[in-house]
Design goal:
Layout lengths: L2 E5 L27 H10 L13 E2 L4 H10 L12 H4 L3 H5 L2 E2 L14 E5 L10 E6 L2 E4 L7 E2 L16 E6 L8 E7 L3 E4 L9 E3 L1 E3 L11 E8 L8 E8 L3 E10 L4 E11 L6 E8 L1 E3 L14 E2 L3 E5 L5 E5 L7 E8 L3 E5 L20 E6 L5 E8 L10 E7 L9 E10 L11 E9 L4 E8 L10 E7 L3 E10 L4 E9 L5 E10 L2 E2 L3 E7 L1
Parallel strand pairs: 5-13, 21-35
Antiparallel strand pairs: 1-22, 2-6, 3-7, 4-8, 5-6, 8-9, 9-10, 10-11, 11-17, 12-17, 13-14, 14-15, 15-16, 16-27, 17-26, 18-19, 20-21, 20-23, 22-25, 23-24, 24-27, 25-26, 28-29, 29-32, 30-33, 31-32, 33-34, 33-35
Length: 529
């Protein structure tokens, strides 16, 4: 494996990835018809896929959305125009939160089925209309907007005959106890979605696709414009949905199979149809927040020891090497590319799992899941791209990690990606290797020199005797490296100082060994002075 790094100028403020709402933070974050009718509607009215009466019902099969995406890709991108009444378009965060779906009217609640559905209202930042369909017995039937399904506080309800449509939906399941339906996942805003496992609270997001993240020409944001939600059968423990993705550069067909549990799993099958060449995409992207932690507290005055949804990127290469890259909140936009072929997995994790590490009762960062991506096919050559964006607040997603295939996409050639997403609290890494659970960075000496302290997971049956460290630096010198047992954690502690000289950027790597045998995963870090 080789690692490429590049530093880019600060990203314009308009390009900062904005968070979706879950808790106290700021809320900054179609449709199926028969092919003949589809083509007729596109030709007569490029702004809609629907008949004049609205979304149409139709036969539905496993390839329907894929065929729809293929047909749309052969035509110019259709603008999404669905004006929203000013009362809803001008809502602020607090006003939008006061519009609530009536849980008693959740879709499939009366039928006693194992899953329930609640649509999201349009408004505030979530103004584009997203079409929802229920699929049952080989038919797709539109789910119609009904104002009486929502409770409006502080804003007048729409007119009774107004068909506002929806912004997305949330899926519910008895996740934590048998007598209560918990929200398991939510699709809301562009191609963003989130999920949780048992005992978790919402944290990082996933996306259907990224295009041009951190590129000088700006980022393109594909969006899910329609969902087909398969009516669950009694006793089922997995839920299937299909989604249409649309963007100026391409269209896409997605199928999700959601299985809630201790770790909620999503099996994803996507096919992309590019209208034009797309030099850089991000497949299976995760979007998270890192404000500060023990490895990066520059300029921080906060009672909490750490604030982040994720504290590192984990990667298992095609050759089986396990790499851990702690996250930072950089002074300037940073992009790192971890080159590989056919990776076995990667993801943004929250390894820090104790309340004492955060001291935040409300945000409960210690209960936020990690997101592990497990490719189901050979993805060929490319890189896991990590983007770290400067932020001065915990309300912004400033971290993006995704697989970028070498060469991007070529016009007219479909590309398929199959993978599993695991929303989990535990670590998916090789249990035989020591993990670098904590990275601390400070200064030491009169100079002063940057000083690193890395603590591993517990040794278990392993012995600390004979453990050594293999350290490398792209510039400067590593000094005073010490490996010792940590009796408080039961693991090992590696400490060392960096003498950077005149270098303003140093790439560091470390691994613990016994002789030539690896004891730990590989640790990688970018120091900037």
């Amino acid at each position: 494996m080789s690692i490429l790094f590049s530093a880019l100028p600060p990203r314009p403020p308009r390009a900062i990835v904005t968070r979706q709402p879950w808790g106290r933070r700021a809320l900054l974050r179609g449709a199926l018809v028969a092919p003949a009718l589809l083509l007729t509607n596109i030709d007569s009215n490029p702004n809609t896929l629907w008949s004049s009466e609205g979304p149409s019902s139709s036969d539905f099969g496993p390839d329907t959305v894929q065929e729809l995406a293929r047909l749309l890709a052969a035509r110019p991108h259709r603008p999404r125009e669905a004006p929203l009444p000013p009362a809803f378009a001008q809502l602020d965060y607090d006003g939008y939160r006061k519009i609530r779906f009536d849980a008693a009217q959740a879709i499939w609640a009366e039928a006693g089925l194992p899953f329930q559905l609640q649509p999201h209202h349009r408004g505030f930042l979530f103004q584009p209309r997203v079409e929802l369909f229920e699929v049952a017995d080989g038919r797709a039937l539109p789910i119609r907007f009904q104002r009486d399904q929502f409770r409006y506080e502080g804003v007048a309800p729409p007119a009774e005959d107004d068909d506002l449509g929806f912004a997305g939906f949330r899926l519910l399941y008895p996740l934590n106890r048998a007598d209560h339906f918990d929200e398991v996942c939510s699709f809301l805003g562009a191609s963003y979605f989130r999920a949780i496992g048992r005992g978790h609270v919402y944290g990082l997001s996933a996306r259907g696709l990224t295009i041009g993240t951190a590129e000088a020409g700006g980022e393109e944001f594909p969006a899910f414009t329609a969902f087909w939600l398969v009516r669950p059968k009694p006793g089922e423990t997995a839920f299937t949905l299909h989604a249409l993705l649309e963007s100026e550069s391409l269209t896409g067909a997605f199928r999700f199979i959601v299985t809630p549990g201790d770790s909620t799993a999503m099996e994803v099958a996507s096919t992309l149809f590019p209208r034009r060449a797309v030099p850089r995409i991000g497949a299976a992207p995760g979007t998270s927040m890192f404000f500060f932690g023990p490895q990066d507290r520059t300029g921080v005055s906060d009672y909490r020891p750490a604030v982040h949804d994720s504290d590192g990127l984990l990667m298992t290469t095609g050759q089986g090497e396990q790499l851990w890259r702690p996250l930072t909140n950089p002074q300037a936009l940073q992009v790192s590319g971890f080159q590989d072929a056919s990776p076995r997995g990667f993801g943004l994790l929250q390894r820090t799992r104790s309340f004492a590490s955060f001291q935040d009762i409300e945000a409960a960062y210690h209960r936020r899941p990690g997101l592990w991506v497990e490719p189901m096919d050979d993805w060929g050559p490319g890189e896991v791209q990590l983007v770290e964006i400067p932020t001065r607040s915990e309300v912004h997603d400033n971290i993006v990690a995704a697989w970028s295939p070498r060469g991007g996409l070529s016009a007219g050639n479909a590309a398929a990606f199959r993978y599993r997403l695991h929303w989990r609290g535990g670590d998916p890494g090789d249990a035989r290797l020591l993990r670098f659970d904590t990275t601390r960075l400070g200064s030491i000496g009169q100079a002063p020199l940057p000083h690193f302290v890395l603590d591993t997971s517990a040794l278990g049956p392993l012995s600390a005797e004979g453990a050594t460290a293999a350290l490398t630096a792209s510039a400067g010198q590593v000094k005073d490296a010490v490996v010792q047992a940590n009796p408080e954690t039961g693991g090992l502690r590696l400490s060392f100082s960096l003498q950077p000289g005149r270098a303003r950027l140093v790439e560091l790597s470390a691994r613990l060994l016994r002789g030539a045998t690896p004891l730990s995963e590989s640790w990688a870090f970018r120091w900037t002075g």
